[in-house]
Amino acid sequence: MAYMSQEGYDKLVAELHELEAVERPKASAAIAEARDKGDLSENSEYDAAKEAQARLEGKINQLKITVAEAKIVDTTRLSTDSVQILTKVEMTNMATKAKMTYTIVSESEANLKEGKISIKTPIAQGLLNKKVGDIAEIKIPRGTIKLRIDSISLEA
After folding, report:
1. Which helix (H) or strand (E) holds 3?
2. What DSSP string runs through 105-150?
3. How far apart are CA 110 and CA 124, in angstroms?
4. pLDDT given for residue 133 in this prediction
5. pLDDT-derived band at 37, boundaries 50, 70, 90
6. How far apart are CA 33 and CA 50, in angstroms?
7. Is the pLDDT of residue 156 over 60?
8. Most CB atoms closer than 10 Å: which of 60, 124, 131, 153?
């Protein structure tokens, strides 16, 4: 089960629709075109098209499972008392004094460029349930970092 925002859920549904309505017919057409070129035993184009179709079907099936298991979080019921999924956390690295801001999201919504980190990352796990002013000691691959929670808010 994956908790996610309505926006994240809508993106997954749109991606699934795109794969089923557009990409699947393209893959079938590519196979048909390659098949028309004759001998299938030595037709690398046919093999590549079949392999691409298999990857596409795998992705479609995985998305269907994710969509089916998704639980949309009602953001109106979230609290900013402590860090939880869909909260935006501003913090300070105690060693470097660097400030950073992350929103904790489901794995499928994670996008570091947008400042959205998966709830499954070590940083997100270390921040969960912490309150403003708390210092989270988080083990990361390069050692341990200490992050002070400066503010907790909800994504608008």
Report:
1. strand 2-4
2. E-GGG-BGGGTEEETTSHHHHHHTT--TT-EEEEEETTEEEEEEEE
3. 11
4. 95
5. confident
6. 11
7. no
8. 124
Asked whether the beta carbons of 11 and 72 are under 8 A apart, the reply is: no
Instruction: Output the six-digit token pair for 30.
Output: 């590519």
- Residue 83 corresponds to which tokens in the numbers above? 């860090």
Residue pLDDT, tens place only, 85-102? 899 999 999 999 999 999
Q: How far apart, in whole angstroms, are the C-alpha atoms of residue 86 and residue 66?
A: 18
Instruction: Please state whether the predicted TM-score (pTM) of the whole model is above 0.85.
Output: no
Position 62: which residue type?
Q
Burial label for 143, CB within 10 Å (0-12, 13-18, 19+), is exposed
Query: Which amino acid is it at 121?
Result: T
Per DSSP, 95 falls in state T
> CA-to-CA distance for 18 and 41, rounded, in angstroms?
32
Tokens at 145, concatenated? 């970092």
Indicate if the pLDDT at residue 55 is higher than 90: yes
| 3-state per-residue secondary structure call for 45-85 | HHHHHHHHHHHHHHHHHHHHHHHHHEEECCHHHCCCCCCCC
